[in-house]
Amino acid sequence: MFKNVELFYFSGTGNTLLLVEEMKEVFKENEIKVSVKKIEDTYSPKINKDSLVGLLFPINTNATMPFIWKFFKSLPEANANPIFMVNTHNGTPAISRPLFKLLKGKGYNPVASCEILMPNNIQFDSMKPDENNRVTLGKRKIREFTINLLEGSTVWDLNMKGSRLVSWLARNTPLPWITSRLFCKFKVDKEVCQQCKVCVNNCPITNIKMDYFPQHLNKCQFCGRCITNCTERAIYIKGKKDSVTIKGVV
C-alpha cells in the first residue's frame, strides 16, 4: 500500500479537476497522504523517492498541449517511483506509448494508465444527450481505477488510439497548433465584456493580454479556460457565438 501520493494536474475546462477531486477522496478514505499541484505552476518538481506519482491532464490534438508535454520532460530522474497517467478527452488520444517511453527513460515505473471520455466543454452546436452522463460515468470510472491502483491490479495500456502522426506532430512541431489557430479565431463581445481579467489571469501560458478588452496572442493551445470561465460569455470562437458551453471549473 502506498503511503504518499503526489498528483500533478492541469484542468482547462474543469473535467480533469473533477476527477482529481474524486481520486483524492479515495486516497483519503484509505488514509493515504495526498499532495496536489497544478502543472502550470510546477516545472522541474521535487518528488519524494517513496511517492506514487500521478499525472492527470486533458488531451488536445491527439496528444496534449505543448506546455504539459514540457512539464513531463521537466520531471526529475527517479529511482523506480511508481507513476500513473489519467487523461480526459473527447476524441481519440495517442499519448500512452510516447509518455510511457519518456517516463521509463527517466527511471519511473509506469504502473497504470486510464483514459476517460468527458464532455466537450466548448463548441457545442447543441447539447448531446450523453454529455451530462459522461461526468457521472467518468467519476465512477476514476473511482474504480483508483481502487484497482491501490490493489495493484492495473497496467499501463500501450495501445495507441488515434493518429500517431498527428500525436507526434503535436508534441514535436507547432504545425497542428498553427493550423488550429487559422481555423479557430477567438472573438470578444465588447458589449458584454466587463474587463474583469478572469481570462487573462486563468490563461496557463499568458496568451491573453488586456488592451482595454482581452486580446488573444498567437500561441494559444486551446485549453478552453477563457471561454468556459467567462462569467458573461463574452469570449467565443468565430462562428460559434451561440454555441452551448458547460461551465468550467479551475
TrEMBL record:
Q: Where is the 4Fe-4S ferredoxin-type domain?
A: 184-213, 218-240
UniProt entry keywords in alphabetical sequence: Iron, Iron-sulfur, Metal-binding
Looking at the keywords, is RNA-binding present?
no
Give GO MF terms, alphabetically: iron-sulfur cluster binding; metal ion binding
Judging by the UniProt lineage, the source's domain of life is: Bacteria
Mind telling me which residue stretches traverse the membrane in this protein? Answer: none
The record's listing under InterPro entries reads:
4Fe4S_Fe-S-bd (IPR017896), 4Fe4S_Fe_S_CS (IPR017900), EFR1-like (IPR047964), Flavoprotein-like_sf (IPR029039)
**NCBIfam families referenced in this protein's UniProt entry, alphabetically:** ferrodoxin_EFR1
Instruction: Name it.
Output: 4Fe-4S ferredoxin-type domain-containing protein
